[in-house]
């Protein structure tokens, strides 16, 4: 009998115990690994379709043959079931579900709150600061362009608070007409608040209301014979009108996202065009992980549920395929967002043109992905031959070290698979407790911290471990793996060739000590070099961030009794850290709140 007709557990008996309520069901295999999460308007009917139908799709047959047990969660409505299904898929990542791999947080424009002179800034990460967040934007480029535009139109400051508080004269942004210099009092609090309000209205999509307000203010200024002010407002209105006209030609006439999907050779690409208040914010492509034989409509339904249920959703979603649960999904998104949401699949005119554009983008990105995947696959196959492996590696890790004369050493670990870099598994290690400049000790510490978890049964083990360096660094890797009892990893050193020329690298095999010179035309060496260069880039960027953070840290922060207020007062009074360093104890005592004892501690800290 086939596995489908003889499942791993008695599916028919399980179905008889179910109610007709809506809910979510989960299937597990014999190792208790989650296979699939699904939602149902009628649990008995939906789960029964897996075990009572005489014929099923091959992917369903493959999954059902592995089911060892099942669980259900009953919900009040089908909408709640859809929401729970989406949350479980994102958190548990079942093998047979369509998974949206999009761990990177989205950029926002941040307007600070609780200040007399708020600032606009780029923001990525948790939105727990006081103030307002506008977005999300599809790319950092879209945020940077918007911030650049805001500086020209409304001149709201974008500098850091520490920089703002310690200015004694206007900065370059004021001199080139992009800031009104609130730091030195060249604009009053009320006038600045008006600029902030206009910027906020513009970011909310109310550009027409901003134009109307500015036009009214221009007329009032002209009537009061304040022609200079009127001319400034006239230029601002003209710039806004030009921008509005330009963007309405390029964009749509509504807040909407246009979504298309293309599938080929087991890879799906979902392309999204973002429009807000008639302004095109650009596009973004997604490559969700697919189960076997997925259809574009399935991918789009899962994409919308997983993507929009945690993000602001526009009033319109134009989709390239009819969705099975379109009405339920639209209702749930409306409840989440607080406004009506329409999902449209049959469109004409402007929307049809945008949908065609999204479809072309999806196809072009998919073609490019397939081409790069084929190239990458050939490189992995060649690496198998060069290293003499039984099969192509599925996971490659590479370590590198970066420091400046031994200062603030950082080790990087990057991960590559058959589909390219897996950035969600990249890691950096801040190295401490070693002799400055001892790269062997740094590598030993980083590898120990990484593979201790593997030895404890946590985390994935690489098939190939690349070490940027020769025999000495390879020996460190072997020592660590031996100490931790980790086996089954092919350790390879990547030593630079004569004159450090690209394409002449030597691969040092740890198990035999043999050296291989693949040559500049070798696909395997191209792969190794790409992974090594990515590890190098990741290590350098981490070291630079650590170095910049250390340099930004003031010596005053380490002085007991000096908090943020006193530190700001000192820097403002003496014009910066150099001025504090040049001041004597008596001069330091002139600052409010600093007595002789504290002044002496400050002086001692500045003159070690």
TrEMBL record:
It is found in: Cytoplasm. Belongs to the UvrC family. InterPro entries: GIY-YIG_endonuc, GIY-YIG_endonuc_sf, GIY-YIG_UvrC_Cho, Hlx-hairpin-Hlx_DNA-bd_motif, RuvA_2-like, UVR_dom, UVR_dom_sf, UvrABC_protein_C. Keywords: Cytoplasm, DNA damage, DNA excision, DNA repair, Excision nuclease, Hydrolase, SOS response. Its main location: cytoplasm. This is UvrABC system protein C. It comes from the Bacteria. It comes from Dyella ginsengisoli. GO terms for molecular function: hydrolase activity. Residues 208-243 form the UVR domain. PROSITE patterns: GIY_YIG, UVR, UVRC. SMART domains: GIYc, HhH1. Residues 258-481 form the UvrC family homology region profile domain. Interacts with UvrB in an incision complex.
């Amino acid at each position: 009998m086939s596995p489908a007709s003889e499942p791993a557990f008695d599916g028919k008996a399980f179905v008889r115990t179910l109610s007709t309520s809506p809910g979510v069901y989960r299937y597990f295999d014999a190792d208790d690994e989650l296979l699939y999460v699904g939602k149902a308007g009628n649990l008995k009917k939906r789960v029964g379709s897996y075990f009572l139908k005489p014929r099923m799709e091959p992917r369903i047959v493959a999954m059902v043959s592995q089911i060892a047990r099942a669980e259900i969660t009953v919900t009040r409505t089908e909408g709640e079931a859809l929401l729970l299904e989406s949350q479980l898929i994102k958190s548990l990542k079942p093998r047979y579900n369509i998974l949206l791999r999009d761990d990177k947080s989205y950029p926002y424009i941040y307007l600070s709150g609780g200040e007399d002179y708020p600032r606009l800034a780029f923001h990525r990460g948790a939105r727990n600061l006081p103030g307002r967040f506008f977005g999300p934007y599809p790319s950092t480029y879209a945020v940077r362009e918007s911030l650049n535009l805001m500086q020209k139109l409304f001149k709201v400051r974008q500098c850091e608070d520490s920089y703002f508080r310690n200015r004694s004269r206007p900065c370059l942004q004021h001199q080139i007409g992009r800031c009104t210099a609130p730091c030195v009092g060249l604009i009053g609090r009320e006038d600045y608040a008006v600029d902030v309000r206009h910027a906020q209205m513009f970011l909310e999509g109310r550009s027409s209301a901003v134009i109307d307000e500015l036009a009214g203010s221009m007329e009032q200024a002209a009537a009061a014979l304040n022609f200079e002010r009127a001319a400034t407002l006239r230029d601002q209105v003209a710039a806004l009108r030009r921008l509005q006209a330009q963007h309405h030609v390029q964009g749509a006439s509504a807040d909407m996202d246009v979504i298309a999907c293309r599938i080929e050779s087991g890879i799906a690409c979902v392309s999204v065009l973002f429009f807000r208040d008639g302004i095109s914010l650009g596009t973004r492509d997604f490559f969700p992980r697919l189960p076997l034989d997925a259809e574009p409509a399935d991918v789009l339904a899962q994409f919308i549920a997983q993507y929009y249920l945690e993000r602001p959703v526009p009033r319109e979603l134009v989709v390239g395929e009819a969705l099975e649960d379109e009405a339920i999904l639209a209702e749930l998104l409306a409840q989440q967002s607080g406004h009506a949401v329409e999902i449209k699949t049959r469109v004409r005119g402007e929307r049809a043109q945008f949908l065609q554009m999204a479809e072309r983008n999806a196809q072009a990105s998919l073609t490019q992905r397939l081409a790069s995947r084929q190239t990458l696959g050939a490189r992995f196959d060649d690496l198998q031959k060069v290293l003499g492996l039984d099969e192509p590696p599925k996971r490659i890790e590479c370590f590198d070290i970066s420091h400046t004369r031994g200062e603030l050493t950082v080790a990087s670990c990057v991960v590559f698979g058959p589909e390219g870099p897996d950035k969600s598994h990249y890691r950096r290690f801040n190295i401490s407790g070693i002799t400055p400049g001892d790269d062997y000790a740094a590598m030993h510490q980083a590898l120990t911290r990484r593979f201790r978890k593997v030895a404890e049964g946590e985390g994935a083990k690489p098939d190939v471990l690349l070490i940027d360096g020769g025999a000495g660094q390879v020996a460190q890797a072997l020592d660590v793996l031996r100490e931790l009892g980790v086996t089954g990893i092919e350790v390879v050193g990547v030593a630079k060739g004569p004159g450090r020329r690209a394409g002449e690298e030597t691969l040092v095999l740890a198990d035999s000590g043999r050296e291989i010179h693949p040559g500049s035309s070798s696909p395997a060496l191209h792969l190794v070099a790409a992974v090594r260069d990515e590890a190098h880039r990741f290590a350098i960027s981490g070291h630079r961030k650590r170095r910049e953070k250390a340099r930004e840290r003031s010596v005053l922060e380490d002085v007991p009794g000096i908090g943020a207020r006193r530190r700001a007062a000192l820097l403002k009074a003496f014009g910066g850290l150099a001025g504090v360093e040049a001041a004597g104890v008596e001069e330091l005592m002139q600052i409010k709140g600093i007595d002789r004892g504290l002044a002496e501690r400050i002086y001692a800290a500045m003159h070690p």
